[in-house]
C-alpha cells in the first residue's frame, strides 16, 4: 500500500487549503458573477451564504476526510452507514475532473496573458495578438501547458508538491491585488464602480438566478462539493483544531474574493469611462466571463511604462493561484486511484490527467455549446448537491460521538463548545434546508 501523505504543519495546511480555495473562482468567477448579477446585491448574498452554507459544509468535509483518512469514495466505504452514499463519492471524483476541464481553459488564458506583453515588446505583433485572440490553437496550446504543470506538481505528492507552492506564492498575490485595488481608485470612473459594488439594490436579493449563482459561487470558491476539502482534510494531522482551520480558510477565501472585486468592478467602470462598451441594450453589464479579460489589461495599459512588468507579474501570479487550485482538483481522483486501487501515484496522475485534458480539448472544439454548460452543471448544480449530501451524511447518518472524537483530537473542549452546538444545528437543519430552498426556488 502506498503511504498517505500528511501536511507538515497547520500553516502548511492553511496555505494549501487556501491555495485550493483561492484561484480563478475569486479573481475571475466572483467579479464576473457580481457584474452579471447586479453588483452589490450579489456581493451581499454571497457573503452571507459563504458563512451559513459554505463554512458548515466545509467543516463537514474536513471532519469526514480526517476521520476516514481517505478520499470521498473510500470515506463512505469506511464510515459506518456510508454504504448508500458511495455513488456520491464517485460523482465527486467525476465532477472534480469536469471542473478541472473548464478551469484549465481559463487558466490557459491567464498564461497567454503572461506572454502577450512579452511578444509585443519583442515586436512579434502577430504572436501577441494571437495570445489574446480566442483562436482554437491558442486555447489548445495554453490549456495543455497548464495541464502539464498541474500533473507535474501532483505526481510529486503532498508535501513536496502542494505545500511548497502554496506557502510561497499566496502572500505575493495578496500584495499585488491590494496594490492594484488602491491604484484603480485613483482613476476616472472608479467611484461609480465602487458604488455599484458596495451599495446593494435590495429588491434583487431574492432573485432566483442571483441566489443560485451566489450559492454555486460559494461552493466553487471554497472548493466544496467535489471532495477536494475532504481529501485535504485527510492530510491534516490529528493535532490540529479543525474548526479553527476551517474558519481561517473561509475568511481568507472570502477576503480575497472581496478584494478582487474591489479591484475589478471599479476597473470595469474605468474601462467604460475610457470608452469601452460594458453595458448591453438592457443596461446590464455585459456577459461576465470575458469582461474581466477586457478590464484588467486596460488597467495595465493605463499605467504607462510600469504597466507591462506589472501585467506580467499579475498574470503570472494568477496562473500560479490557478495551479494551486487545479492540483487540488486532480488530487481527488488521483487519491482514489492511490488509496483504493493501489495504483502508482505517478502513473495514475498522468493517466487521469490525460483523460480530463481530452475533455478540455472537446470543450475547446465546441466552445459555445459546452463551456457555459459544463460550468453551470458543475458549479450551480453538482457542487451544491454533493455539499448537501455531505451535510446530510454528517448530520443524520454519522455517529455523533465519532464526530466529536474527531473534533476533540485537536480541540479537547469541542463537546461543550458553542461552535459544536451551532455548527451541528446548521449542518443538520439550516444548511440542507437552505440548499434545497435555493434549488426549489430556482425551479418555480
Ligand atoms: N476554489 C477554486 C477557485 O476558486 C476552484 C476549485 C473548485 C478548486 C473545486 C477545487 C475544487 O478557483
Kindly describe this structure:
This protein is mainly alpha-helical. The longest helix has 36 residues, at 86-121. 78% of the residues lie in helices and 0% in strands. Bound molecules: phenylalanine (PHE).
Q: What's this entry about, in short?
A:
Helix content is 78%, strand content 0%. It is mainly alpha-helical and 444 residues long.
Order of helices and strands: HHHHHHHHHHHHHHHHHH
Query: Pairing-aware structural class of the strands and helices?
Result: mainly alpha
Alpha-carbon distance between the two ends: 50 Å
Q: Name the bound molecules.
A: phenylalanine
What is this structure's SSE topology?
Elements: H1 10-21, H2 24-36, H3 40-68, H4 72-78, H5 86-121, H6 125-131, H7 136-155, H8 158-185, H9 190-198, H10 208-221, H11 228-234, H12 242-273, H13 288-301, H14 307-339, H15 345-365, H16 367-397, H17 400-408, H18 418-443
Helix pairs in contact: 1-8, 1-12, 1-14, 2-10, 2-12, 2-13, 3-4, 3-10, 3-11, 3-12, 3-16, 3-17, 3-18, 4-5, 5-6, 5-7, 5-14, 5-15, 5-16, 7-14, 7-15, 8-12, 8-14, 9-12, 10-16, 10-18, 11-14, 12-13, 13-14, 14-15, 15-16, 16-18
Amino acid at each position: 500500500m502506498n503511504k498517505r501523505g500528511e501536511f507538515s504543519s497547520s500553516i502548511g495546511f492553511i496555505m494549501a487549503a487556501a491555495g485550493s480555495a483561492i484561484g480563478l473562482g475569486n479573481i475571475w468567477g466572483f467579479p464576473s458573477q457580481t457584474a452579471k448579477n447586479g453588483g452589490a446585491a450579489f456581493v451581499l448574498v454571497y457573503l452571507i451564504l459563504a458563512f451559513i452554507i459554505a463554512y458548515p459544509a466545509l467543516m463537514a468535509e474536513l471532519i469526514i476526510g480526517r476521520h476516514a483518512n481517505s478520499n470521498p469514495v473510500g470515506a463512505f466505504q469506511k464510515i459506518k452507514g456510508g454504504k448508500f452514499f458511495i455513488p456520491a463519492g464517485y460523482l465527486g471524483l467525476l465532477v472534480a475532473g469536469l471542473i478541472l476541464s473548464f478551469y484549465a481553459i481559463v487558466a490557459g488564458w491567464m498564461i497567454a496573458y503572461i506572454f502577450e506583453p512579452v511578444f509585443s515588446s519583442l515586436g512579434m505583433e502577430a504572436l501577441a495578438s494571437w495570445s489574446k485572440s480566442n483562436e482554437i490553437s491558442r486555447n489548445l496550446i495554453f490549456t495543455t501547458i497548464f495541464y502539464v504543470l498541474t500533473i507535474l506538481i501532483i505526481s510529486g505528492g503532498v508535501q513536496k508538491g502542494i505545500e511548497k507552492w502554496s506557502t510561497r506564492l499566496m502572500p505575493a498575490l495578496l500584495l499585488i491585488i491590494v496594490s492594484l485595488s488602491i491604484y484603480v481608485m485613483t482613476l476616472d470612473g472608479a467611484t461609480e464602480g465602487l458604488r455599484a459594488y458596495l451599495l446593494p439594490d435590495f429588491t434583487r436579493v431574492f432573485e432566483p438566478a442571483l441566489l443560485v449563482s451566489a450559492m454555486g459561487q460559494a461552493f466553487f470558491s471554497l472548493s466544496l462539493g467535489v471532495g477536494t476539502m475532504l481529501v485535504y482534510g485527510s492530510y491534516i494531522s490529528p493535532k490540529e483544531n479543525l474548526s479553527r482551520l476551517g474558519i481561517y480558510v473561509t475568511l481568507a477565501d472570502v477576503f480575497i474574493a472581496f478584494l478582487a472585486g474591489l479591484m475589478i468592478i471599479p476597473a470595469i467602470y474605468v474601462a467604460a469611462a475610457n470608452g469601452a462598451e460594458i453595458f448591453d441594450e438592457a443596461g446590464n453589464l455585459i456577459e461576465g466571463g470575458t469582461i474581466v479579460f477586457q478590464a484588467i489589461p486596460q488597467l495595465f495599459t493605463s499605467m504607462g511604462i510600469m504597466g507591462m512588468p506589472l501585467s506580467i507579474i499579475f498574470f503570472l501570479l494568477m496562473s500560479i493561484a490557478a495551479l494551486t487550485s487545479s492540483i487540488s482538483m486532480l488530487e481527488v481522483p488521483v487519491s482514489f486511484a492511490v488509496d483504493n486501487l493501489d495504483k502508482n501515484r505517478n502513473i495514475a496522475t498522468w493517466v487521469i490527467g490525460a483523460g480530463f485534458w481530452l475533455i478540455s480539448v472537446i470543450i475547446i472544439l465546441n466552445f459555445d455549446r459546452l463551456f457555459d454548460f459544463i460550468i453551470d452543471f458543475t458549479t450551480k448544480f453538482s457542487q451544491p448537491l454533493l455539499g448537501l449530501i455531505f451535510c446530510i451524511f454528517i448530520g443524520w447518518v454519522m455517529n455523533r460521538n465519532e464526530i466529536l472524537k474527531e473534533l476533540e483530537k485537536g480541540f479537547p473542549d469541542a463537546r461543550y463548545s458553542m461552535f459544536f452546538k451551532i455548527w451541528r444545528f446548521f449542518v443538520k437543519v439550516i444548511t440542507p434546508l437552505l440548499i434545497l430552498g435555493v434549488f426549489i426556488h430556482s425551479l418555480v
